[in-house]
User: Fold this.
Amino acid sequence: MHRKSTVRRLIFLAPLLALLALPGSAVKPNPKAVPQEGEALWSAERLPKLLAKYHEALPGKIRALEFVIYSHRAQMQVQDPAKPENVDQYDYSGKISAPIPVRLHGSGNLEDNLFGLDEVAFDRIPALVAEAMEKMTIEGGQVTHIIVKRDLPFSQDMRIYVYLNGTRKSGRLKADGKGHVLEVRAD
Assistant:
């Protein structure tokens, strides 16, 4: 019984699959839906503007817990200067959001996890993205996001992580805060 229903499905799908195999019949990607070169927030053109938006919205010295950059949005978790025991998240999607309270977990010391934005070579991120794409030849590989944070619990050192995802594998480039590559790994 199960075998017959599978055969019926295949017979039904065969003409549809044949149509897709015809030249020119494949679905073409929408060029507006696929980020073009230079459009991503981590590009050399847009990253300084993104950082300037955060500095404008959060005057004074920013002490961050984590900064995640996606192609078209970002989120930065920042210590509240008025209440140093608190962290708020500020999302960016064209503009900086109002503060979103962050629930902190774990027994670590918040102060040990924080970093100043001046501790990170943000200008190296576009080159790290290019290097990740070059060194990890992942089928269909695209950069999904970048994370900047301390390497705790392993060390106090700053880390920049560039993550790729593909059709069959994913990968990660790990660099120090100055943008020197420490590890490139595809899984």
Residues 3 and 9 are 10 Å apart (CA to CA). DSSP finds four helices and nine strands in the chain. The longest strand covers residues 142-150. The beta strands are 63-70, 74-79, 87-92, 100-101, 115-116, 142-150, 158-165, 170-176, 181-186.
